[in-house]
Design a protein that fits this description.
Elements lengths: L22 E12 L4 E11 L6 E5 L4 E6 L3 E7 L2 E6 L6 E10 L5 E4 L4 E4 L16 E11 L3 E4 L2 E8 L2 E13 L5 E4 L2 E7 L2 E7 L4 H7 L3 H12 L7 E6 L5 E3 L2 E4 L3 H7 L5 H8 L7 E3 L6 H19 L1 H20 L15 H22 L1 H15 L2 E3 L1 H12 L4 H9 L2
Parallel strand pairs: 1-10, 16-17, 17-19, 20-21
Antiparallel strand pairs: 1-2, 2-7, 3-6, 4-7, 5-6, 8-9, 9-14, 10-13, 11-14, 12-13, 15-16, 18-19
Helix pairs in contact: 2-4, 4-5, 5-6, 5-7, 6-7, 7-8, 8-9
The structure holds zinc ion.
């Protein structure tokens, strides 16, 4: 994601109150958004594992109204601020299935634009779907979305079918691979669309304002970027489609799709090398969605990687001068932090607390990856990135995992480098 000053919503470090580790395996949600009323109605089935000794579980539920929780072992439930406490009884199995009915007017997390007839999700999922917001609990998702007839709906995973339901259309999306809940989402509206194909992967572009022809121009590099990240990570893109939607005022990656600010197209059309944000959000399909920081103290492993990989693509596509000018920008942001005594180690608590802290995570982090590449040399650095990405694809990571993967791959002791640039300042 790219956090704009006005769009940050605090919260979201996971339920954190579970006595025994909670492992959700699948969410199955049927949701009906009402764009004019900014309202949603949802029925959610959660399949999860928890130690049979656990007497309760805690889920995140934003400001949603939960009116029913049922299941074989559900004894009672209560909502306390943004937490949903569910008491369990008489269990011998780790496997559980519960059904939750809820509704509400999400204030954040789901953006409604009644003037354009659009809606889309951003950070954070529990504001529109009861979920376990932990960064290290990965689950698959079945998302069934009911939208007014004629509207299009793009969501996490792949579209497996659509059907008529009265005056609505039901879109059925399936994400078969597991990711943390913050990567789930959808967008709906009266979109024009265009598509390209790269190998077996269909690239879809949507906007309610721009024509298909213009969309193709804006996103012309997507296939090249995707192939570049496949090569650098050594891991194929995870599914058969990737969608980009120009909508609203956010930049947000989700599983298999990204939303980009509605005005983003104009800067790309003015200067075709201004595609950093296309690259940034697409990079998260590897670094972020599939290789995920275990908690937000290590958020630079998501965001600095996305920033840096976008610059690495710029170098590949436009030459070293473009790369150097990106790095000079990141260094100047870092120098400014140091000068104002706002610098921090890359691993720290409270990245969301200020713009300066966010700059540490995004831009100092990207600058440090550049320095690491200088330290190791191109061949060793990229071999290390590939080895790290392959080893941890589909897993959650801390900074030590990255350091050790780079050390193992390159045969270099990086203690001094990581102490100086990552753990200390
Ligand atoms: Zn990002």
């Amino acid at each position: 994601m790219v956090i704009l000053a006005s769009s940050w919503t605090p919260g979201a470090s996971g339920a954190g109150l579970n006595e025994y580790p909670l492992d959700v395996t699948r969410y199955t949600l049927t949701i009906e958004p009402d764009i004019d009323k900014g309202f949603i109605d949802g029925t959610l089935i959660i399949n999860f594992h928890v130690d049979p000794k656990a007497k309760s579980i805690v889920l995140d539920a934003g400001n949603l109204n939960v009116h029913e929780v049922t299941g074989n072992n559900v004894a009672a439930f209560s909502k306390n601020q943004n937490k949903l406490h569910i008491e369990l009884s008489g269990r011998t199995q780790k496997e559980n299935e519960i059904i939750i009915k809820y509704d509400g007017n999400p204030q954040n997390g789901l953006q409604f634009h009644s003037e354009t007839g659009e809606a889309y999700t951003v950070y954070f999922t529990s504001q529109w779907m009861v979920s376990h917001d932990s960064f290290h609990d990965r689950a698959s998702l079945h998302l069934n979305i009911l939208v007014p007839k004629g509207k299009k709906c793009i969501a996490s995973g792949e579209l497996i079918g659509t059907g008529k339901r009265g005056d609505k259309t039901l879109f059925q999306w399936r994400q078969t691979y597991e990711t943390p809940s913050y990567t789930y989402g959808f967008a709906l509206g009266d979109f024009n669309e265009a598509s390209d194909q790269v190998g077996n992967i269909k690239l879809n572009y949507y906007s309610s304002r721009l024509s298909g022809e213009v969309l193709k121009k804006v996103f012309v590099e997507t296939g090249n970027i995707l192939q570049f990240f496949e090569q650098k990570s050594g891991v194929s893109y995870i599914q058969n489609s990737y969608s980009q939607i120009l909508i609203g005022r956010h930049y947000q990656e989700m599983s298999g799709l990204s939303v980009l600010h509605a005005s983003y197209a104009s800067s790309v059309l003015k200067d075709s090398s201004e595609i950093h944000l296309t690259s940034h959000e697409l990079a998260h399909q590897w670094w972020g969605n599939m290789i995920t920081c275990k908690n937000l103290d290590h958020f630079w492993l998501n965001e600095a990687f996305a920033v840096y990989m976008a610059s690495a693509f710029n170098e590949h596509k436009f030459g070293v001068e473009k790369y150097n000018s990106d790095i000079a920008l990141y260094k100047s942001i870092y120098d400014d932090l140091v000068e104002r005594n706002k610098d921090k180690p890359l691993v720290f608590t409270g990245w969301e607390a200020s713009r300066d802290n966010r700059h540490v995570v995004y831009y100092k982090g990207a600058y440090v990856l550049h320095l690491l590449r200088q330290e190791l040399g191109d061949a060793a650095f990229w071999a290390g990135i590939k080895s790290y990405s392959q080893e941890y694809f589909g897993k959650s990571v801390e900074t030590i995992d990255f350091q050790q993967a780079m050390e193992k791959s390159t045969g270099t002791d990086l203690d001094d480098f990581f102490r100086k640039w990552v753990y200390e300042k």
